[in-house]
Amino acid sequence: MTHAYDESVVTYAMDNLGCALDYVINFLGVSGDEFLKLFVSTGIADEFGIGNPRYVTGMSGRDMADEVFSICGKTVPEINGDVNGDYSKEYWCGYILAYYQWYSGLPFRKILSVLTFEKLMNSYVLHEADESKAVDVFDCAVRAESFLARVRKKRGLTQAELAEKSGVSLRSIQLYEQKKNDINKAQYNNLKAIAKVLRCHIEDITE
Fold first, then answer.
1. pTM of the entire predicted model
2. 28-73 pLDDT, tens digit each
3. Of 1, 96, 12, 92, the residue nearest 51 (C-alpha)
4. What share of the chain is helix, strand, coil (3-state, %, to 5)?
């Protein structure tokens, strides 16, 4: 499997996202889900996910979180001194989330459309196991259903309605959702038509 950035940098990424979540939750009182939504919406999650050194190694988790809030126009209260927690549950959630994103190659927005912060917290029992155990558990949840099916259902459309509106055959959509046909190899025009109906990017429905 080809990863977005070198394995030697992964531990920095894991620590940074872990520290960011510990900081915003335990020191700022911001919920994990709220921060992660902002992390994605600002585009910083995409940059982090491809290993942009500015976020992965160039700043602390606290600095990265502060930049997320700054882009969103949110004021961060002044906190003096060390804000690094003692490897809290929240830290572990960010730590293992960063590892899973690096390992899977999936963008954060796709992962977080399935793995809420609550689900990450409920997975804390895995914190003493090897990271590969968490990867297996997360993968089962994230890939249990095709991304096309998830987006379609979120838009409140049936397969037949999507087929009619997009001009792509119902059978093709069924096979993509069942993963019997590889949607990554679908004709671009079909993907573009489906994405237009679902009001999403093509990358949101590919695997």
1. 0.86
2. 999 999 999 999 999 999 999 999 999 999 999 999 999 999 999 9
3. 12
4. 65, 0, 35
